[in-house]
């Protein structure tokens, strides 16, 4: 199937030769990351809800209907924590550590509503120009390196920088802080729970605390000042709320979009006919982006079972983790015609890449803007490119899936 990293050898790991993903899945295993669509297709046939004893017990539904039912059921499933780790979050914290994504009703709606104006289509449209400028700067640097005969990596040299720069711009913090953002996110998303011994001053929380204190002394026209001036029932937001929401925007806004841009370029590098069509018909790019979001959806979220409940033919018990693989839902043949084919002119496409239910992505306008501009600018500069080595493409592990290494040859594939 075309949505799998080609050439990845999942049989080389002895542990995986014996692993049954139905009873012992591990979404942090590189073999899972490399072949996830095939694993979901298999599980959908024979489970369809997989289980693991790891992480203290976790479930993995694979059908669109089950993922949707769980995402819409806030009575039995809590968002207190949305990243599976060996540790359970503190159930007594009412807002969660990163509102609104970790908040349950009724507080969720309050926390979400106050952020909406910052991510409306109008508010996001002003970011188009700086995003285009960032993309062109990155492409200029790639052009120079290409001319010097250096290898080019579309994920490392391009995709990973775009959302970091946009978020830094949005928060009003220096562009140079971008590399630190990626380190923070890597620790949280790809190595959850493994950095508990870190010096507190090296953590994301300390970094955010410092920038918030700076902004308390002097407001600017940025999102941190917007949050510091926001109120709930005429009371300013507590520091926990402001810092938690900023943490969420870093976590939710960076590697998600980086993955989606990388996956779009992965597809175009490996499908010359689609690439040539988009170069000839750039007006099709927004439709193609929706299809890339469906076929290569990067985000799997999690819930904690709040009350025992039956899903399919399994009983989930209070305290269990449940992964919500929106990417698996998007590839379910019961939900989409030709689900395993990437059709860049697909018009009926109510995909779940941005989630389902009350937590549906608040940054989707911004994500679409970044993706569209990133692909437009890349194709305008490099209409011809292909994978340098399909086996060298490396996909991230954990709950956000996208190419982290994507070596390409520019000017090839004519
Ligand atoms: C292609 C890029 C992106 C994808 C695929 C994506 C996907 C998602 C998904 C699946 C959810 C639902 C979470 C859940 O059900 O627990 C979500 C929520 C959220 N996303 Fe995104 N996201 C992207 C980009 C962004 C960006 C750029 C931002 C903002 C800077 C953002 C901000 C948020 C926020 C604030 C929420 C929480 C909404 C709530 O709890 O009510 N996302 N996103």
Your description of this structure?
The protein is of the alpha+beta class. The chain has 17 helices and 14 strands. The chain has helices spanning 14-18, 30-46, 64-72, 107-115, 121-125, 128-147, 155-159, 161-171, 178-190, 204-217, 223-229, 239-253, 255-270, 272-280, 285-295, 326-330, 364-381; strands spanning 49-52, 58-61, 77-78, 152-153, 231-232, 235-236, 300-305, 309-311, 314-316, 321-325, 385-387, 394-395, 403-405, 407-410. The strands form 5 sheets. Strands 1-2-10-7-3 form a 5-stranded mixed beta sheet. It has a 3-stranded antiparallel beta sheet with strand order 4-14-11. The longest helix is centred in the N-terminal third of the chain and has 20 residues, at 128-147. The radius of gyration is 21 Å and the shape is globular. Mean pLDDT is 90; it is low at 1-16. The structure holds protoporphyrin IX containing FE (HEM). Protoporphyrin IX containing FE binds at residues 71, 79, 82, 100-101, 112, 248-249, 252-253, 256-257, 260, 298-299, 301, 326, 353-355, 359-363, 366-367.
Bound molecules: protoporphyrin IX containing FE
Helix content: 40-55%
Radius of gyration: 21 Å
* Arrangement of strands in the largest sheet: 1-2-10-7-3
Q: How would you state the average pLDDT, rounded?
A: 90
Q: Termini, distance in Å?
A: 23 Å
Broad shape: globular
Low-confidence stretches: 1-16
- Percentage beta strand: 5-15%
By DSSP, the count of extended strands is: 14
Number of helices: 17
Based on secondary structure, the structural category is alpha+beta
> What's the story with the biggest beta sheet?
5 strands, mixed
């Amino acid at each position: 199937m075309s949505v799998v990293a080609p050439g990845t050898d999942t049989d080389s790991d002895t542990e995986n030769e014996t692993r049954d993903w139905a009873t012992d899945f591990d979404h942090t295993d590189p073999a899972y990351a490399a072949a996830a669509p095939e694993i979901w297709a298999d599980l959908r046939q024979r489970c369809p809800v997989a289980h693991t004893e790891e992480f203290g017990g976790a479930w993995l539904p694979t059908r669109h209907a089950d993922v949707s039912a769980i995402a819409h059921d806030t009575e039995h499933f809590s968002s207190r924590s949305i990243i599976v780790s060996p540790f359970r979050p503190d159930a007594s914290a009412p807002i969660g550590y990163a509102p609104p994504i970790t908040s349950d009703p009724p507080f969720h709606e309050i926390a979400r509503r106050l952020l909406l104006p910052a991510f409306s289509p109008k508010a996001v449209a002003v970011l188009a120009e700086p995003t285009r400028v960032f993309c062109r700067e990155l492409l200029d640097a790639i052009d120079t390196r290409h001319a010097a005969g250096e290898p080019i990596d579309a994920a490392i040299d391009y995709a990973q920088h775009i959302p970091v720069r946009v978020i830094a711009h949005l928060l009003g913090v220096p562009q140079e802080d971008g590399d630190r953002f990626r380190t923070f996110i890597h620790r949280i998303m790809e190595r959850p729970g493994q950095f508990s011994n870190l010096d507190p001053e090296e953590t994301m929380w300390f970094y955010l605390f410092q920038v918030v204190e700076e902004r308390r002394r002097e407001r600017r026209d940025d999102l941190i000042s917007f949050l510091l001036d926001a109120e709930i029932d005429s009371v300013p937001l507590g520091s926990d709320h402001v810092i938690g929401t900023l943490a969420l925007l870093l976590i939710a806004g960076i590697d998600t979009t980086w993955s989606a841009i990388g996956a779009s370029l992965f597809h175009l590098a490996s499908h010359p006919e689609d690439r040539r069509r988009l170069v000839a018909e750039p007006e099709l790019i927004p439709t193609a982006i929706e299809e890339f979001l469906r076929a290569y959806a990067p985000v799997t979220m999690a819930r904690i079972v709040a009350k025992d409940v039956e899903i399919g033919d399994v009983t989930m018990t209070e305290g269990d983790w449940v992964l919500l693989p929106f990417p698996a839902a998007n590839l379910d043949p019961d939900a989409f015609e030709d689900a395993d084919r990437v059709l860049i002119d697909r018009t009926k496409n109510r995909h779940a890449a941005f989630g389902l239910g009350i937590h549906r992505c608040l940054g989707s306008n911004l994500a679409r803007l970044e993706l569209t501009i990133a692909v437009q600018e890349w194709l305008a500069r490099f209409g011809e490119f292909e994978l340098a080595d399909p086996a060298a493409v490396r996909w991230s592990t954990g709950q956000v899936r996208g190419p982290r290494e994507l070596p390409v040859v520019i000017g090839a594939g004519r």
